[in-house]
Every structure is written in structure tokens, then in C-alpha cells.
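Quick question, first post here. What does this chain look like in 3D?
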Amino acid sequence: MNSLPFFSIIIPVFNVERYLENCLNSIIHQSFTDFELILINDGSTDDSEKIILKFHQQYSFIKYISQNNLGQGTARNKGIEIAQGKYFWFIDSDDTIPENALTSIYKELTNEEEVDALLFTKEIVNTYEENIEKERNHGIDKGIEAGIYSADKIMKSFLCMKILPSCANKIYSAKLFLNGKCRFPGEVFFEDLAQNVSCLSSCKKIKVIREDYYTYIQRQGSTMTSACTEKHIKSIFFILDDIKAYLQKINQYEALEKYYFRLYWYQLNYFYYKFIHEGSEENVEMFIQYLDVSTSKLHLQFFVPFDDNPDQFPFVYVLSGMMENPFLKDQENRVFESLNFPEEFINTYM
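> Answer (accepted):
Ran it through. C-alpha cells below.
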């Protein structure tokens, strides 16, 4: 075994006493043992901390950090600061990894030329609703075959949502995180969406394999199933702005702009139907207010059809979803008047 671990597994923990032991046991009982496990208690108010301390006292390779409830992004960043492994894996505390996953992943990372990231599919286990729609293609579109890819290819696929933004089915080289790079936005939701953009765009070589090396537990009470708050709404717009600013900072926005269009509208549509669609009128109004501010900053190209699908006006899906009417008949004028569309767009398409 090397003096420094091959993997650093970083897990933020918040009020998951029901699931945490299964998560930790699935890691601790792996046949591959060259790893460290970093647990960050993010201000849990249940018995999660007791479970962490029990495992921490029993296993010397477990590191433990405690913080006030500042969110998964801040917790993961703290884990990054003390991690010593060659590769980082960010696992959620209510999920598990399959038997011998670490052995298989180690072989994938060492059997040919070195890569900066490894992407793999995941199994989805639903615990709270029998007929929930499965996450499409388990995290990676079927059109993306196993192989080695450039960052440019993977970034375009990611922005088009052919690679979903969970960080749990991606393993990143520790080199990407040097000098404070590739950190998670703090104290917001959907932080992994922005962090994956910074990590993937920093890679030179990325390996994709079509094997389920992660088990995602869909449950009530998680970030993705919890009741919508203003923080959820504020977060999605903040994250989309943050991604755009980052792409501009690294001089990649112009080359990737049309792909960013897709990410922008896909995320807002997904967010609306996930958090707003059947919620309160107050949340609908709040969403429209944030959308108003955001769209006022966009230029015409954000509103016209996609190049490869002239019948697809992406913004229409957001608006028609709000009105539950594909032609926006009932409240069309009120919504249009509340959103600052470019004058050129209004003159051309309205």
C-alpha cells in the first residue's frame, strides 16, 4: 500500500441516521482498502453524529469534520482541503456503492494511460413511490459509448444534459483541485451542477465506462424531493449565472454558448416541474420574478429555436408549463408583460 491513499472518499452528512450505516458499511467492506474516508457532519440534529463517531473510533482511515449546517457544497470543500488521495470520489450519505466497486474502478484507472476523470453509470433504487419515472439512462446517455474523450466532447454532452450533473458517478483526479480550483459553490442547492462544469472543463482526458458502480437511493426528504423554498429558486438561477461566469472566465463561453442555452432551458424546465409545478401560487410568482431578472440579461439567441431543431423554442416549455396550457391562452399577456424579452425577439416572433 502506498503511503498516501489511492482514493479519498468524501461524504457530507446531514440528518441521514436511517441510511448512513448502510452507506458506510458498503464502503468499509470493500475488498480494495487503499482509501481514506472523510466524513463531514453538516450540523445534523438527529443521531447521524453518533453513527459517525462510532465508525470514526473503530476505523483509523476515517477522518471526521464537524461544521454548522452550511450545505453540501461547503462540507465537500472542507473535505477537499484535507484529502490526500490520488483520486476524489464524492458520495452522498444516503447512497451505497456495490460490492467490489473500488477494485473495479481502480483497475479502470490503472490499466491504461492516466485520465483526469472517470464517468460511470449508476443503479437507481426508489424507496418512496412505485411508479416514479427512472432517471434517463442512469446518468449517461446511451449514445455516449465507453472510451476516452476530450474535455470539449464531454463538456458539450454535459451542457446538453446527456451526462447528468450528479458528482457521485464521477471520480476526479486530485490534480484538478490544486490551488483552490474546482470547488463547490457554498450555501446553495444544485452545487454539483456548477462544480462538474469546472472539473470537466479542466480535464484533458476523460474515461467513460458503462458499468453501475454507484447505487442512488431515491427517497423522500432529500434535496431533490424536499419542499420548494425560496432558497431552491434562488439557487438554480445563481448556479446558472455562476456557470456562465465561469465559462467566460476560462474563455470558453463563446465556443460553448449554444450548448449553454440548452443547459439553461433544460434546467429551468426540470426545476419548474420538479419543484414548482404542483406547489403554491406564491412559489410560481416567485419563480416568475427570478425568471424576469434572469431573462432580462439574455440576448436574442437564447429565445430562438435550436439550430438542429427549428420547431423547438426552448423558452416556450417553461412558460407553457407555468400556465399548464401549451398556447398560454389564459394568462399569456400577464406573463409576457412581466418578462423582459429582447425587443428584437418580440418584433420577430410575437
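The beta strands are 7-13, 35-42, 62-67, 87-90, 117-126, 147-150, 170-173, 205-218.
Residues 253-276 form the longest helix (24 residues).
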